[in-house]
Write a structure and sequence with these properties.
Blueprint lengths: L1 H19 L8 E11 L2 H19 L3 H5 L2 E7 L2 E2 H14 E16 L6 E14 L5 E17 L2 E6 L20
Length: 181
Amino acid sequence: MKMLQVKAVSVLCLVAALLNWPSTSVVAKTQITSSTIQEVDAQTLQELLSTFEQAELAMQARDLEGIMGLYSEEYLYHGLKKADIRKVWSQLFEHYKELESFHTFSVIRTVGIGTKLTAEMTCTGVVWGTAKDTKLRTPVDSWYEEVHYLKKENGRWKITGNLGGASEPLLSFGIAPHPLF
C-alpha cells in the first residue's frame, strides 16, 4: 500500500513538472480530433493550420510585426481594431515570456465564394505565458468553442475578428472578449 502511494505521488509530481515545463517547441499545438467536422479540402486545411503555426512562431519569437502580419487590415472584434490588438500583443510581450498557444478545432469550414470566402474554425484553446515579474505560468487568454474567422488576402489567410464586424461590443453577460486569435 505504501509503495502504491509513493508511485501515485511520483506520477503526480511528474505531471505537475510537465505542465510547468517551459516550452522549447516552436510548432503550433493544434489538434484536430476524429470528431472534428472538416468541410475544407486538404490544401485549405493546411493553409489554415499554417496560419496558426506562423502565429506560434511569431509569438514565441516575440515578433510583433510577424504576428500583426497575420491580422487582416479589416480586423474587427467586438469593437477592437487592428491597432488595438497591436497594443494588446505589445503589452503581452512586455509582461510575459515563454508564450505558447494550444488550439483544439471542432469545426473547420469555409463559407461564401470569391472575395467573400471566409474560413470559420470553431476552437477551444488557451494562450499561456510566464509573468516576468512573478515567474508564474498563467493563462493570458482562453476560449471555449470560439469561432476564429479568417479570410484570404493576397494569397494568405488572415485573422479578421468576429463575423458581422459590429463596431460596438456585443458581448453577452458572462462572456469575456477573446481578441488574440
